[in-house]
């Protein structure tokens, strides 16, 4: 679906992303890179229907003449609808010649993350005037081993019911209370049938493969 929007607002975000200066090797840096502004030029030029119609006339003549017009463009992927549950999947492999190699580098991730710098300025389910879209960490999946074999374990936070999250999931309502602290609770490490309590610092030092956040604001 092609949307005609104000060009001045097309690449605007809820919060100024230029103030981020994200640390390399962090989840903020990953999100910043994933949502960066890209220039489409040369072989990546965009097929422009408007330019083609100007050049070829009515649509019914376009296919017969095959005079498509391509133009330079800008592209940016931003979040237009903040989800109740945010799931971040880290790419933990890279090509090494004809083989795949697992990436074991630790990626820093916080207990509370603000998605506002990665959301469109008119994000659909964010209250007008809000410049923060906060999420609290409640689950992590970690993989140990290689690309050929290994073992999955999980860290899960046992916590009290989040009424704001219930409103979001069941009624589609946007929470109004401002919370900047992570949801209180006890973390547990789960490996097959073994479950043991762990500290938050232990969770944050894990080599995350999947991250699960619930929305606070």
From TrEMBL:
> Which residue stretches, if any, does this entry annotate as coiled coil?
none
The UniProt GO MF terms for this protein read: cysteine-type deubiquitinase activity
* Gene Ontology CC annotations of this record: cytosol; nucleus
Which Pfam family, giving just one, matches this sequence?
UCH
Q: Which UniProt keywords apply?
A: Hydrolase
Q: Which GO biological process categories is it annotated with?
A: protein deubiquitination
Q: Which residues form the USP domain?
A: 1-216
Q: What is this protein called?
A: UBP16 hydrolase
Q: What species is this protein from?
A: Scytalopus superciliaris
Q: Which gene carries the instructions for this protein?
A: Usp16_1
